[in-house]
Each structure stands twice: as C-alpha cells, then as structure tokens.
Specification:
The structure is a single chain. This protein has a five-stranded parallel sheet, with helices on both faces. It has a two-stranded antiparallel ribbon with strand order 6-7. The chain has six helices and seven strands, in the order βαββααβαββαβα. It is an alpha/beta fold. The protein has two domains: 3-126 and 161-178, Rossmann fold (3-Layer(aba) Sandwich), CATH 3.40.50.360; 128-160, no CATH class. The longest helix is centred in the middle third of the chain and has 17 residues, at 98-114. The structure holds flavin mononucleotide. Residues 10-15, 58-62, 89-92, 103, 126-127, 129, 137, 141 line the site of flavin mononucleotide (FMN).
Length: 179
C-alpha cells in the first residue's frame, strides 16, 4: 500500500469533483489517499510523507491557480523524485482542434514555468457552471462559450467532463506508482 496525495486547485468546484474521482480510483487499488485543497495546506504538511502525487488545477483567464503554481515551485525537488501526474481542467479541453491545442499549451507552459516533468499529464474538459456565476461572469462566459462552441443556454450548468477519461488518466498514474 502506498501513501498518495491528491492536491487540487479550483474556482467553482469541478476540479475538486474530478480530484475526488481520482482519489476514489486510487483507493480502489488499495492505497491510502489524502485529498487536499491547494489553498488549505496545513502548516505541518510535508510532501516527503507521500509515495506519489496527483495534482489538478483549473484554468481561469488563461492561468492555473497561483497557489498550485507556488506549491509546485516550493516542492519541485520532491515532485521530480516521485511518481507524479498533473491534470488541467478547462473549457478549451472540451473543444476540438485549436481549442484543445490551446488547453494543452497552457498545461505544458505551466509545467515548464514551474520546472516539473510529471510522467502522466492530461487536459480534462470542465463545466460551464452558469448557475454559480454572477450576472457579469455569466455574460462573459456566454461570450467565451459562443466563440469556443460551448453551450450558451445560461439557465443551467453544462458538464463536459469525460469521467472514463479521468479513470484512464488515474490508471496510467497507478501503473507508474505500482510498477
Ligand atoms: C472567470 C472564468 C474564466 C475562465 N477562463 C478560462 C480560460 O481562459 N480558458 C478555458 O479554457 N476555460 C476557462 N474557464 C472555464 C473553466 O476552466 C471551467 O469552468 C472549469 O470547469 C473550472 O473548473 P473549477 O470549477 O475547478 O475552477 C473560465 C471560467 C471562469 C468562470
């Protein structure tokens, strides 16, 4: 049994749900999992207590959460030394062609910036959470969605997450951890 940390950054909660699914799949393999919000790391936290790590972050205005970036920079040596995986949640990941390439470019740019080379990485389609946005954000997101080919019906949320894809991503990480 290994000790695994699943750390996430989120704005409206979708990355938290996806991290929860990742944690469930790892637990089903008999490992001990700690699920942690990247902005609520306890003072006595040490990454050295873990055998492997999965990090998830979402994209808002072209960037991942700053606290995830800071975590990756502060822990870069240990991150490089253990089995690790990173997933990036966004609307562009739900698109095709150029849209998806954009999501991939933001993910790769983030990893380059923080100097981390996880063996397993994925872009994961997120949610248009219209119900959680205020009027201004709803308006802007509707414009972005229209350009990106996403849903513009603001009367409900639209989830694009491919849960089976998230399971496959987690299994690829487990192969590294267990192999
Ligand atoms: C204010 C705001 C800005 C966003 N900016 C981007 C963006 O630049 N690119 C993108 O692909 N998705 C963007 N999104 C979509 C989010 O990445 C998507 O809703 C994702 O599911 C958010 O995950 P979270 O709930 O874990 O934060 C944005 C969403 C919001 C609310």
């Amino acid at each position: 049994m290994a000790f695994v940390l699943v750390l996430y950054g989120t704005g409206e909660g979708q990355t938290e749900r996806i991290a929860g699914h990742v944690a469930d799949v790892i637990r089903e393999h008999g490992h001990d999992v700690t699920l942690l919000h990247g902005d609520r790391i306890p003072a006595d936290f040490s990454l050295a207590a873990y055998d492997g790590i999965v990090v998830g972050a979402s994209i808002h205005l072209g960037r991942h959460q700053r606290y995830i970036r800071e975590f990756a920079v502060e822990n870069s040596a240990l991150l490089e030394a253990m089995p690790s995986a990173f997933f990036s949640v966004s609307l562009s990941a739900a698109g095709r062609g150029t849209q998806r390439e954009k999501a991939r470019a933001v993910l790769e740019g983030f990893l380059e910036e923080v100097g981390w080379h996880p063996e397993v990485r994925a872009v994961v389609p997120g949610t248009l959470a219209y119900g959680q946005y205020g009027p201004m954000k709803r308006f802007v997101m509707k414009l972005i969605a229209r350009r990106a080919g996403g849903a513009t019906d603001t009367s409900r949320d639209h989830e694009y997450t491919d849960w089976e894809g998230v399971t496959r991503f987690t299994e690829a990480f487990l192969e590294r951890l267990e192999g």
